[in-house]
Amino acid sequence: MRYRVLGALELWDGDGWTSLGPAKWRMLLAVLLCHANRTVPAERLLDELWGEGQAPQSAAKLLQTYVSRLRQSLGDASGGALITDKQGYKAHGYRLAVEAADFDAHRFEQLVEEGRRGLDREAEFPSPARAAERLREALVLWRGTPFADVPPTPSVEAETTRLGELRLQAVDARIDADLRCGRHADVLGELEALTAEHPYREGLRGRLMLALYRSGRQADALAAYRDLHRLLAEDLGVEPIPPLQRLQQRILTADASLLAPPAPRKEERPAAPAPRAAARGPRQLPPASQAFTGRHGEVAVIRALLDQRDQSDPGAEGGGDGDGGGAGRPVVIAAIDGTGGVGKSTLAIHAAHQLADRFPDGQLYVDLHGTTAGLSALEPAEVLGRFLRALGVDGSSVPGDTDEASAQFRSLVAGRRMLVILDNAAGVDQVRPLLPAGPDCAALVTSREMLTTLEGATHLHLDVLPHDQAVALLERIVGVERVRAEREEAEAITRLCGRLPLALRIAGARLAARPAWPLRTLASKLADARGRLDELRFGDLAVRTSFEVSYDAFRLGGRSDDADAVRAFRLLSTVPGQDVSLPVAAALLDHPADRTENALERLVDAQLLESPDSVRYHMHDLLRLFASERAEQEEPEAEPAAALERAMSAYVATTQRAVTLLDPHRPWPRHPVEGAEVPLRDRNEAEAWLKAESGNLLAAVAHAVTQSDALARLGIRLAQALQWFLYPRAHAQDLQTINELAIGAARRLGDLESQAWALDHLAGAHWLRHSYEEMRTTLESALEIWRAIGHQRGEQRSLCNLADALTELGRFEEAIEVQRRQLALARDTGDVAAEVIGLGNLGRAHRGLGRPEDALTYFKESLEQARRTGDVHHQGFAMYEIGITYMEQGKFPEGRAHLDEALPVWQRPGMYESWRGHTWSGLFPACMTLQIGPGPH
């Protein structure tokens, strides 16, 4: 059996790599692989799989079951691979027997060690070229983060960290080997990214300085040293290591010995002869972008594909003419996809220049105009004619038939080392006839759509740039000093451009053309969302134009579902938040879920929408602005607001249902809203939905309260419902924000009842912040409104909360007086839930006055009422207060018993999570005094 962990955990089943089933099986196998060929005690495995001391009583039997199932997956019925180590008749632990060649992590370590030996200057025959080859072979084994699909365990986390550090060391060693072989130009971009990611690694900084110096960039090499010197001095108070200081001095004095690597020793066999110097073959690559930044992972993947191909071809090392050594090997195809302006063409051209020396017979390039504004996509026959003429075929001999021309093209490039770049493809049918078939050729294809049916292709999806790389791109265009002088403004421009490379190039070009402009000028222009796309155009570049090409393909398309897709694109711009779920999108569009999903997936295929999982969709900020423009221009005037009202109604109706499932006994202002409710079956689903949607719900409140009266009312209703999700989790800031917004909207609408509820809920945020005086004044404002409109239920709730605030302020007598007024109202109206809360508050005030027996009487009455009504929340509160009161009396066994009973309440979904910590704190004196641990809960 073979294993891979440098990425997702996979097994070789004889036909291909497969993943393992349930998470616990993957965790078990991962831990055994972390300790391959060593016995892992059963007790440790229990801690790894369930957490230290958290394993259930049935864990030992479950572990045996998992071992049995794992053996079945490994085809190890005899137990010869997954070995049980026994003590007597009992399993003591388990050991996984693994050969180094069958385990990618072990093979990686072997290759790294071989590479290091080739770099050892004390070795008899050091060989940097062979070392670079071995280290590349090691790094090709990496497919992503180790154990990527395995839930974390202590062993897995430790091994992931160790392997990650070893990988970084291997990269460093491989760069060292490349520098010794004179490949400084090849590693420069990679070094810049690595030093940005690991600024304190002085060895990498030294290699960057050397590569810059050898590339004729002495000033940049010295600037790299100054940056490190400043960083170490400011952050750590230390100087760079002596070797780095000496290197700086050698660069300052233009030491000639730094300019070239030492000549290879006679005993060293070169990894490969130099490329053939013959000038035959076309060289059609466009110039590479001088501002190219980042994308090191994608370039590394393309390099790795070629490395794997060359390693599988015994004749590749000699750079021969492909006379059979590569027979049967497929051509390397890398298909790069991503939204408009994300940098697909720039990446392909940059990578092609980096790899050009591997293709001495030529490089063919064509822009297929698949998504070029104002131009039709090129026909394959026209492209083949261009390629054949570039390869020396007389124009009169070019076949007119596409299939015939494609066959002639494949024949001509067979046996040659050629790179073909098919940029801006419309689709698979346009690309297929243009692909070479020779195993020594390669093709880079770019397209907005993912060309999933392109056989044999490795797909690279480009997202927007990471934040640091986006700022670095701006630096390259505008200038490092200018960007660093206004760092905050540069980061604002990066954010407002959505980290989209095209937008950043335009912003950078505008600033470069206006050297007198401070960056804040452009940042302030971009801050106006309605004019942002107008600002993001310069010369022949425009973000809006890039988006229009994809949009118009749907708007003018002939498919029956194109109209649904463009309408969905426009209306999605109305929904606030980071993403939108499929059920809410269906409500927005007023379509069934399957029809909605089809429209959204069409947009995903066209890179106008992203889908982080199967039921959620995200739109880039600049695309949202473009979609909003189109909605304003093309939708009926009332439709965007009506669509948003449908989505908001779905949010409100589902939130009301969710908080009711979490706490059915909680009294709150129920104003049912008719909407397309997301189906939720129980508390767990309610909790999961609210957590997943919380960011969108908060954004929906903030947006809705500024819109029409109908939408503002929905925003207020959503804020009211969210109270009972946010308050138990102590989300004070969110609670304060949405209730302040609700108060403002209610005042605008003249809705006194909603204003009073929002004031009462705002008092809850003050409670969580321990701002009891602000809580008191807020509640007094609410009480004025309740009494003015004669709303007894609201009045008694605010009285109850006011008593709480007065108790915390130490005004116990006032608290008792207020609470008695509340209890009278609760009993008059038959509100048992409010009575339960009031009795608890009376108990707290009496305890504050030093009357513990009176306090216990009220707490026990509150507990009895809560049990009678099934109010689990306030059963927990009452048991907590009884336990604390007993503790203060020194009755530790009684206090511990009640606090033990309270603990399970806070572990239920939707309960007050912070009270679990309060309860544990309350238990501590009893446990210390009685010298016992906590109870069974």
Key terms for this structure?
937 residues, alpha/beta, three-stranded antiparallel β-sheet, 16 strands, globular, disordered C terminus
Mean pLDDT: 85
Determine Rg (CA atoms, Å).
34 Å
Strand content: 5-15%
The total beta strand count reads 16
Q: Structural class, from secondary structure content?
A: alpha/beta
The number of helical runs is: 39
The residue fraction in helices comes out at 55-70%
Strand order of the largest sheet: 8-9-10-7-11
Overall form: globular
Describe the model.
- This protein has 39 helices and 16 strands.
- With 937 residues, it is an alpha/beta fold.
- A 5-stranded parallel β-sheet has the order 8-9-10-7-11, sandwiched between helices. Strands 1-2-3 form a 3-stranded antiparallel β-sheet, with no helix packed on it.
- Strand 15 (610-613) and strand 16 form a beta hairpin.
- Helix 4 runs antiparallel to helix 5, helix 27 (639-662) runs parallel beside helix 29 (709-726) and helix 29 runs antiparallel to helix 30 (732-749).
- The longest helix has 27 residues, at 154-180.
SSE layout and pairing:
Elements: E1 2-4, E2 10-12, E3 17-19, H1 23-34, E4 40-41, H2 42-50, H3 59-74, E5 82-87, E6 90-96, H4 104-119, H5 128-140, H6 154-180, H7 184-197, H8 202-214, H9 218-235, H10 242-252, H11 296-311, E7 332-337, H12 344-355, E8 363-367, H13 380-390, H14 402-413, E9 419-425, H15 428-431, E10 442-447, E11 457-461, H16 467-478, H17 480-485, H18 487-496, H19 501-513, H20 519-527, H21 532-535, E12 537-538, E13 541-542, H22 543-555, H23 562-572, E14 580-581, H24 582-589, H25 593-605, E15 610-613, E16 616-618, H26 621-634, H27 639-662, H28 683-704, H29 709-726, H30 732-749, H31 752-768, H32 772-789, H33 792-808, H34 812-829, H35 832-848, H36 852-869, H37 872-888, H38 892-906, H39 914-930
Parallel strand pairs: 7-10, 7-11, 8-9, 9-10
Antiparallel strand pairs: 1-2, 2-3, 4-6, 5-6, 12-13, 14-16, 15-16
Helix pairs in contact: 1-3, 4-5, 4-6, 5-6, 5-11, 6-8, 7-8, 8-9, 8-10, 9-10, 13-14, 16-18, 16-19, 18-20, 23-25, 23-26, 24-25, 24-27, 27-28, 27-29, 28-29, 29-30, 29-31, 30-31, 31-32, 31-33, 32-33, 33-34, 33-35, 34-35, 35-36, 35-37, 36-37, 37-38, 37-39, 38-39
